Amino acid sequence: MKRLLIALTAAALAAVGVGIGVANAFDNTNAQILSPFRCPEYRSTGQPIVFSDPNTGGRPLVVKFSWVALQEKQIQDFLKYEFGSITVTDSNGNTVFSQSWPLGDTASWTPIAPVTVAQPNGGSFNGWGTAHESPLGSLSSGPTGDATYYLSVDAELTHAVNDGFGSFPRGKIPAPYVQVANCAFTVHDFSRG
User: Fold this and answer.
1) How far apart, in whole angstroms, are the C-alpha atoms of residue 114 and residue 127?
2) Which among 42, 68, 71, 88 is least surrounded, fewest beta carbons within 10 Å?
3) In sequence order, what DSSP letters do the residues of the chain get, joined into one string?
4) What residues are paired with 168 via a beta bridge?
5) What angle do CA 182, 186, 192 make, to 5 degrees?
6) CA 76 to CA 32: how far, in whole Å?
7) Which of 43, 44, 36, 84 minimizes the C-alpha distance to 62?
8) How remote is the C-alpha of 123 from its chain's centroid?
9) pLDDT digits (tens, 9 = 90+) for 137-191
């Protein structure tokens, strides 16, 4: 079972992992959500990740991912021992967005809240969750109407944590939970067709 749930859409129930979802305690319906979990998923199917240019009528772009656990204390432990960074570069390798959060920084995460987690077998359970949201600002489609960017997310634990299903050891939180490097996505100007 996936332990780290990544918000993929702004729908009431975000489908994540292998059919796992979190009832919408962390939705931002005014944004286009870029989740690190989409990167491996789309790469394996060959489908591009495309967003509408926020400068030509598209909603703002936000990098967003969540962590859920069975008990609130397990979320508190995760936040106590986790730190990381997000970087977005353009096709020339220039950094266009960079953010990091230090160890124990709970300000980078939403308040811990009760969530309902959907399981792949159709069942669900009540748990606790938090989400990390990073608005990317005004990434542009550029003069051609299409611009490619690359997302990298690095998250690490200084101590093992347990989410009620199992334990994540100290060190980098492995892909596909959050870890991603150079995940390509395109910002497109749909007003041009």
Assistant:
1) 6
2) 71
3) --SS-----SSSEEEETTTEEEESSS--TTSEEE-TTHHHHHHHHT---EEE-GGGTPPPEEEEEEEEESSHHHHHHHHHHEEEEEEEEETTS-EEEEEEE-TT-GGGBPPPEEEEEE-TTS-EEEEEEEEEEEE------TTTTEEEEEEEEEEEESS-EE-SS-EEPSEEPPTTTS-EEEEEEEEE-GGG-
4) 161
5) 165
6) 28
7) 36
8) 23
9) 778 888 888 999 999 999 999 999 999 888 889 988 876 567 788 888 999 988 8
- Report the largest interatomic distance among the alpha carbons of the chain, rounded to a whole angstrom: 50
Domain boundaries, the chain: 13-192
